[in-house]
Prior knowledge:
Blueprint: H1 3-56, H2 72-75, H3 80-88, E1 93-95, E2 102-104, H4 120-135, H5 143-166, H6 172-188, H7 196-207, H8 218-237, H9 242-257, H10 259-262
Helix pairs in contact: 1-5, 5-6, 8-9
Amino acid sequence: xxxxxxxxxxxxxxxxxxxxxxxxxxxxxxxxxxxxxxxxxxxxxxxxxxxxxxxxxxxxxxxxxxxxxxxxxxxxxxxxxxxxxxxxxxxxxxxxxxxxxxxxxxxxxxxxxxxxxxxxxxxxxxxxxxxxxxxxxxxxxxxxxxxxxxxxxxxxxxxxxxxxxxxxxxxxxxxxxxxxxxxxxxxxxxxxxxxxxxxxxxxxxxxxxxxxxxxxxxxxxxxxxxxxxxxxxxxxxxxxxxxxxxxxxxxxxxxxxxxxxxxx
Length: 264
């Protein structure tokens, strides 16, 4: 990736990290008008950055979060002493004669900072496999797939626009957003030879369709009573589950009112 593309990904990641805090803080300081203003500004900035990545840098299907979190255990470098042992050609493993079990030899025991429970071969294989996955280029998108990804990127802006036109109690914003999400996934379903990150992203988007059960006005009219009843039954009749379901019942109304939790 080029340096400008890395900067775009970094800014996009920062926006996704602070969007909920910005919404709640602005609502507390400037009220509802300030809250919706910051929501529109953040969604507009995210859409511009994503469209630049899609159309200018050909970033393909964009994942969320934009920058994959670092697995420090797998990315941990070898200790200098371990590197010397590797370069000197010392045997790192010993194979049992009877059990054929592979164990680490005492001479190649790594330092405490880089010690792990797997065999050296397993660690090297996992690191090389992860490096290959991280370095895989994005799958080139045709015209249909580019339109589908553009629909997914601009869906939040169209939803906000429909909220401003028809109001928060109307079914039209909810239906418009659902149609756009389903259309985007349908157009992307024909794309083959996706890498692992892109397949995981499409699965995540498919699972997120369940959020429409928690989004107003569907939640207010249909889902709220049934979900709370189910959680209450689980808390009353299933031992130990109440430690999770009772706080969830108290938290769900507040969570449902935060725009970036529901629609972001």
